[in-house]
């Protein structure tokens, strides 16, 4: 071994750290990196995610109606607790037909429209707890609103200089007048209902003559944040908006100075019988949350 020069100190050797200290340091760095990674993936705080979201129950344009009915039957068979459900009818019914058909379940609302041939009439959800009284009262309120819409369309037609626009307003006035007459006579215009019951009662209802589909909606907790979209009785293959093959070019269908409560706009769950349906319900402007498990539901 070579000799060390005299007067030269040996090189300093750093003190050896205890193994536990090194391990703690490594773990500490890993924890910091993990925290940074999680923070980078986490979205900005959004508060209560239930605020501003709307649940859709039913079918959207383009959905297969046979597939929808099959999925609804499977969900009903697996149901284990009471829930809301959307009941679609085979045909349009008058209010006096509802008590017998919907016996044994709690009714929250019905879905109505006047089925004029080749016309895209308005779809409306009416609150209904006592049948048929609440439905006929709601229809009477709709008739009054349709009368006002018809008068408004006639006024616009009289003021319109363009012939095509004038014919459109005249057509709108005619259709609104027909809707008013239908609702005032308690027409066969009801084609769906929103109900709540235990599984056994819902299954019994689904098997009654005149019921097309019963779609359980266990995820629904607030009716005022739920949109119900039942299939139209006249459609059997694919869901689509009501036909309007007899429309006049340039017609301002449904255009009036008064807002219209549509089935797309949710009805508050606290609505009671006798509420004037001429008062419009604001349409949702926030993101939708569709259900999972049927052709129209998203995660």
Q: What's the short version?
A:
Helices cover 33% and strands 16% of the residues. The chain is an alpha/beta fold and 299 residues long. The chain has one domain.
Structural descriptors:
disordered C terminus, disordered N terminus, 6 helices, 8 strands, 3-stranded parallel beta sheet, 299 residues, alpha/beta, elongated, 5-stranded antiparallel beta sheet
List the helices and strands and how they pair.
Blueprint: H1 19-41, E1 54-58, H2 65-78, E2 83-93, H3 98-101, E3 106-112, E4 124-127, H4 133-159, H5 163-184, E5 190-197, H6 199-206, E6 211-217, E7 226-229, E8 288-290
Parallel strand pairs: 1-7, 1-8
Antiparallel strand pairs: 2-5, 2-6, 3-4, 3-5
Description:
This protein is an alpha/beta fold. It has one domain. It is 33% helix and 16% strand. The chain has six helices and eight strands; from the N terminus they run αβαβαββααβαβββ. The strands form two sheets. Strands 4-3-5-2-6 form a five-stranded antiparallel beta sheet. The model is unreliable at 1-48 and 248-299 (pLDDT under 50).
Give the helix tally.
6
What is the percentage of strand-forming residues? 15-25%
Mean pLDDT: 76
For the secondary structure, the number of strands is 8
Distance between the termini: 76 Å
Please tell me how large the radius of gyration is: 31 Å
Order of helices and strands: HEHEHEEHHEHEEE
* Apparent shape: elongated
Helix content: 25-40%
Strand order within the widest beta sheet: 4-3-5-2-6
Low-confidence stretches: 1-48, 248-299
The largest pleated sheet is described as: 5 strands, antiparallel
- How would you classify the helix and strand content by structural class? alpha/beta
What is the total number of structural domains? 1
């Amino acid at each position: 071994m070579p000799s060390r020069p005299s007067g030269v100190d040996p090189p300093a050797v750093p003190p050896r750290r205890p193994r536990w200290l090194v391990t703690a340091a490594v773990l500490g760095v890993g924890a910091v990196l993990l925290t940074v990674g999680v923070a980078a993936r986490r979205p900005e705080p959004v508060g209560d995610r239930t605020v501003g979201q709307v649940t859709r129950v039913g079918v959207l344009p383009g959905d297969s109606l046979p597939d929808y009915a099959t999925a609804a039957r499977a969900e009903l068979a697996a149901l284990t607790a009471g829930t809301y459900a959307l009941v679609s009818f085979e045909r349009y019914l008058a209010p006096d037909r509802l008590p017998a058909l919907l016996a044994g379940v709690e009714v929250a609302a019905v879905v109505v429209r006047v089925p004029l041939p080749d016309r895209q009439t308005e779809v409306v959800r009416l609150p209904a707890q006592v049948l048929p009284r609440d439905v006929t009262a709601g229809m009477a309120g709709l008739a009054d609103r349709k009368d006002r819409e018809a008068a408004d369309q006639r006024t616009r037609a009289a003021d319109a200089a363009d012939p095509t626009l004038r014919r459109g307003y005249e057509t709108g006035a005619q259709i609104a007048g027909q809707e008013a007459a239908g609702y005032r006579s308690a027409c066969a215009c009801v084609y769906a209902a929103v109900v709540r019951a235990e599984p056994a009662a819902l299954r019994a209802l689904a098997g009654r003559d005149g019921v097309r589909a019963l779609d359980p909606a266990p995820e629904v907790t607030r009716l005022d944040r739920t949109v119900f979209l039942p299939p139209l009785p006249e459609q059997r293959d694919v869901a689509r908006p009501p036909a309007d093959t007899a429309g006049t070019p340039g017609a301002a269908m449904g255009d009036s100075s008064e807002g219209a409560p549509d089935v797309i706009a949710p009805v508050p769950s606290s609505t009671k019988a006798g509420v004037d349906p001429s008062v419009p319900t604001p349409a949702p402007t926030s993101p939708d949350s569709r259900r999972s498990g049927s052709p129209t539901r998203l995660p």
